[in-house]
Amino acid sequence: MSTIAALSTDIIERDVAAGERPLPERSSWLRQDEVNNQATAVTFLQDRKEWLLAAYKKLSKLALLEADWDSYGAEAPTRDSIDAAREILRALADAELEPTSVDPSAEGGVCLSFQRGGRYGDIECFNSGGILAVTSTGPDDTNVWEIERSSVQLGRALSRIRTFIGW
Amino acid sequence: MLCLPFSRLCRQVCYCLCRRILWRGRIRPARMYRNGRPIDSEFHQSERLFFRCKLDAVFEADQLKPASVRFPDQSVNREKYGRCRDVLLPDESPKSKNWILWGVARIHVRDIPTEAKSSGGVAYQFAVEHDPQEDNYAHSELRVYKNGQREQGGKRINQQIKKEFRTRLALSARVIVKPLI
Q: How many domains does chain A have?
């Protein structure tokens, strides 16, 4: 409980600090992201979803990436794509479906991926606002579909990935 | 298995020695420079193409993550005119960084999908094309053509087609030099 209490205090202090002095645009949303991430993390820490805390921390790190992070000219993830990824992580936690990794996308955005044996699936949130999912067992068996930002569509996509991966 | 800090040190020392002794102070070996050589459009199906990646871009078992693949215009170095570790060497531009601790992923030319059709019936063709640079003769690019016209930047390419291409390519790729950062 001490960790949760410390996090909560930290969040409150940061919230107050964020309200007291205006920050430049990007710094502002990064700070808010950190607060949102930790607030949700506190809730889920109580449910012992430690992977979710790690995923939120990774999202916070992704928010600090700069353009050309891959040395081939990739865009940094925007606030929109990070917000979308956070929403999906919440849905994943509800569905008890843990992603294998949370990564920046070379196409600009955030990608939540799932891998087990020879089976691969992911949900990619683009800076443009679009969300695409894929399942694949290899180069000759790849299925891509679009997801709209609604809980129904997201639920269907998660169910499809879960069935495909075999979790 | 060497521990990570020791592996990093070894790789950096090797690079420094190559630079000082073999390459006579230049940041790249002489064989990498173009020196007036022409474009070579012939790619054998078994030819390997290399590009660099970080530790974050790799699953266990040396599998590349599809999120780390860019498309179109992903830069690669072709095996015919270089070695896999060439993609880790810095170039002479002021923006260039030292990628010596990054890893190297490889794909074969035969792994590149040749064409795809969107649900709206638009035909896309994919190809690897030799695109030599003055200080990197082996440089090539994975390019896309839409109804016969080259598309650059990817804004006008169907998102699902792009994602399918990136996933197929990544799942065909293997990491052959382990990233150390």
A: 1
Nearest to B56 among A72, A74, A103 (CB): A103
Half-sphere CA count of A124, side-chain side, radius 13 A: 30
Backbone angles phi, psi at B54, to 5 degrees: -100, 170
Q: How far is B92 from chain A (nearest CA, A)?
A: 15
Domain that holds residue A49: 2-165
pLDDT in tens, B119-172: 889 999 999 999 999 999 999 999 999 988 999 877 889 999 999 999 999 999
- Measured between CB atoms, which of B59, B69, B113 is closest to A106? B69
Q: Which residue of B has its CA nearest to A124?
A: B67
**Is the complex ipTM higher than 0.85?**
yes
Q: Which of A71, A63, A39, A65 is nearest to A52 (CA)?
A: A39
- CB contact (8 A) between residue A132 and residue B56: no
